[in-house]
Design a protein that fits this description.
Number of domains: 2
Distance between the termini: 53 Å
Helix content: 25-40%
Strand order of the largest sheet: 6-14-8-13-12-11-10-9
Shape: globular
Number of helices: 14
CATH architecture of the largest domain: 3-Layer(aba) Sandwich
Order of helices and strands: EHHEEEHEEHEEHHHEHHEHHEEHEHEEH
Radius of gyration: 23 Å
Strand content: 25-35%
Structural class: alpha+beta
Amino acid sequence: MYTFKSDLPKEEYDNFVENYSMASFMQDYNWANIKDNWGFFHCGLYKDKNLVGVCLVLVKKVFANIKLFYIPRGYLIDFTNFEYLKEMTINIKKLARDNKAYVVKIDPNFCLSDNSFKDEDVEHNYSFNHEIKHNNLLKLGYVYGGVKKDMHTSLQPQYNVFAPICNKENEILSLDELLKTYKSKVKYYLGDFHEKRGITFEITDDINNLDRFIKLLKITEKKQNINLRNKDYFVKILNNFKNRAYIFYGNIDLNKYLEFLKENNGKDEEIEEVKNLIKEHGNTTTLSTGLLLLPKNKEGIKVSEYIYAGNNSFLNKLHVSDGLVFEMIKFSMDKNCHYCNLGGVDGNLNDHLTIFKQKFNGRIMEFIGEYDLPTSWIYKPIKTLYPILLKIYKKIK
């Protein structure tokens, strides 16, 4: 009844993803080209010659000849169908053992809960039947990692904030309907506020336009003491996600802003600051940027994903990043998306990212988290010793 392939052709894989609701970009066939420092398999499970599940498996050498299998935001399968899940598990486990992987790690793309910051009743697309899915995994020998509120302690942030672009019936909102879901203090900084001050927004998928994006990412890295990606990484994304990856820029015409300040009783220090910025940057400069990925699926719930952001170090009071995110949400709406995933936040919901992202009528999506499928006797020793060895390594470093 069942057959399994670990080298599924791209066309078959893509056709399945196009009809799979809520598929993450991390299970896209081409994501293997982005993670090119990992090995990979494109797997497919057939029942009676019909494809019923796929997954991208990333393979990493841990040490010596021991490897780890990681299936980010996978499998793409009906987790409520125990039979399908069992067959996929059996075959993935065999593939892992054949390739000397001691564990298969997954963090499925469904949620424990999805709630509104406003305590509104919401549609539970991501958390629907999560108990059945969770219990099926446990029955098949997966070890559950539990809830991790610190976004840096798991491979993917367990808490994300989604901006909804649909109603309870999953119908895409109009722009007017969308704006009605926002508080007035958020709407104040959108549209006219920016236009009057010389701010415009630009959307591009041109690789030759990446330099400004990288420059603002570097400023953000320094400001937040974090490490992001280099230019080659984003070139790969734009090349591998044609018509799905877009860079957004929030630009300012400094001369127009200067005139606005003069005509509207701007403070002397504000006017002087803009004059100095014109000397340093010329008439126009970029204040904010972000990278948005559109989903591949044509059916079911479609979710765009805001995966990288950068901001300049001046004129933050103009709230250009608010306008930029709104432009991404509008763009997602035009592409018939139901949600825009604004990315990970701390599970305590008190960090600066949460405060920013909840402005857009945000939903708190508590993803189910990580599961380990042990495939070797060395799983337990490694799980016990690895955190200790990592601490020692960090101290030595």
